[in-house]
Design a protein that fits this description.
14 helices, GMP Synthetase, Chain A, domain 3, about 35% helix, about 475 residues, six-stranded mixed beta sheet, alpha/beta, elongated, 3 domains, Rossmann fold
């Protein structure tokens, strides 16, 4: 069994920095900003080939209200499921009432706890750590998460209490199923949908734009099938983004889109399809990711508004006619289960193996039905095709003058491949390569007999020219 280690403490004591240090990643957002982390974030770490799972949590103060209350609840849930708790305190701020409250909670839960005084650099260690012994949690361990000072020795001691469990690479890289990212504008219901798909209140939901600030990866199983769902921060128009924290959140969301196999674009049905939704859709297609569109809050609309929204979708989404559209209510669960059907179909289409023989036959049939146009008096020739990649499917077509293939003919070929291969839910990329002329750039060397014949012909040509 791999030990689970939760990082808890007040806001801004360095939990996310410690999480990144333990997992050797930059997965958690870090800034000099209290309350930046809101959801539980999981990551895998390794010390001396011994594996563990770290959980980053939001800060707890004890006087939370509103969204902070939901955030603190997520932190306490992390304590419940952890085997060990690293209780981080700020050695520069000293002992606070919030530290005492958290220590009382950990004692009540009887959790194995290590008290970690972070930001110890530049101070007298004994003086800085002395006040924290009052918490009655035993030894105080000094660390500097930003520099890694004291972290490795602390983790070696923590992991000594667990049986050695070295995970082989094959197990470590086992398939975690379909990665699906839930993306959209702020406050369209992304976190509510994530909780509905998971069947539990896994991420913080609050009626306030910008509740989710980081991309949260969650592994789970449904009907014995593995999935990874990614809850992301909402993306607003660039002119409305002013805070640096929000800029980093958007970067994380764009990275999640690139990392996902399938993207579920969530749209607020009450507002209809807006330009920002189309921009997001365009980015997903540019990244080559399979796409499913879901209109949330559908059950709250009257019939007239529903008909208007459907007409708008038909008019404005012609460029993504390959994507399934679902009308759902994340809050009540209406239509949410059907999302899995489209997600699995899109994933299958994006990752299916395409054979050269099959692709070439499709290309030849398409050319026979509708020949490529003439360029410079010569017909463009397309000879054969083969697969060039997955997710998105890339089809490489070889022939002559392929750089001159017009866009309308490329569209015809794309639709033909999509129809015959039944590539539903994913964009297709066509790449064209011209066959190289094997004699290009090579000088023709004449034999002595050919050279003599050439001289005689040239002399005859010059004499006939003089007579004229």
């Amino acid at each position: 069994m791999i030990p689970v280690i939760a990082l808890v403490g007040r806001p801004n004591v360095g939990k996310s920095t410690m999480f990144n240090r333990l997992t050797r990643s930059r997965d958690a957002l870090v800034a000099n900003y209290a309350g930046l982390t809101r959801d539980r974030k999981y990551g895998e770490g390794e010390i001396n080939k011994r594996q563990f799972i770290a959980i980053d949590t939001g800060g707890i103060t004890g006087d939370e209200e509103g969204i902070d209350s939901a955030m603190a609840e997520q932190s306490l849930l992390a304590v419940e499921e952890a085997d060990v708790v690293l209780f981080l305190v700020d050695s520069r701020d000293g002992l606070t009432a919030a530290d005492e409250m958290i220590a009382d909670h950990l004692r009540v839960n009887n959790k194995k706890t290590y008290l970690v005084a972070n930001k110890i650099d530049g101070q007298n260690h004994d003086v800085a750590m002395a006040p924290f012994y009052e918490l009655g949690l035993g030894e105080v361990y000094g660390t500097t998460a930003t520099q890694g000072r004291g972290v490795k020795s602390l983790m070696e001691m923590v992991l000594e209490e667990f049986p050695e469990n070295v995970v082989e690479d094959a197990e470590e890289d086992e398939a975690k199923g379909i990665k699906m990212a839930i993306v959209g504008r702020p406050n369209v219901g992304k976190s509510t949908l994530v909780n509905r798909l998971l069947g539990e209140d896994r991420v913080v939901v609050y009626d306030m734009p910008g509740t989710t600030r980081d991309s949260v990866y969650i592994n789970y199983e449904r009907n014995e099938k593995p999935y990874t769902i990614i809850d992301t921060a909402g993306i607003r128009r660039r002119k409305n983004v002013k805070e640096s924290v929000e800029k980093f959140s958007i970067v994380k969301t764009l990275q999640a889109i690139s990392d996902a196999n399938v993207v579920v674009l969530l749209v607020d049905a009450t507002e209809g399809l807006v330009d920002q939704d189309l921009h997001l859709m365009g980015h997903v297609i540019d990244q080559g990711r399979a796409l499913v569109v879901a209109l949330n809050k559908w059950d709250g609309l009257d019939n007239e508004h529903k008909e208007f929204v459907k007409n708008e979708l038909e008019r404005r989404l012609r460029f993504v006619d390959f994507a399934d559209i679902h009308f759902i209510s994340a809050l009540h669960g209406t239509g949410v289960g059907h999302l899995y059907e489209s997600i699995e179909q899109a994933y299958s289409a994006a990752t299916d193996k395409l054979t050269t023989n099959h692709l070439t036959r499709i290309l030849q049939d398409a050319v026979a039905t509708h020949q490529p146009p003439m360029v410079g008096g010569h017909r463009i020739k397309l000879r054969y095709a083969h697969a060039g990649g997955k997710n998105p499917p890339i089809i490489v077509i070889h022939g002559n003058q392929t750089e001159s293939v017009p866009s309308h003919y490329k569209k015809f070929l794309e639709k033909t491949f999509r129809r015959v291969l039944d590539l539903h839910g994913t964009p297709i990329k066509l790449e064209f390569k011209s066959t190289d002329n094997p004699y290009a750039g090579k000088k023709n060397e004449l034999t002595s007999r050919q050279a003599a014949k050439k001289r005689r012909l040239m002399e005859h040509y010059k004499k006939s020219k003089k007579k004229k």
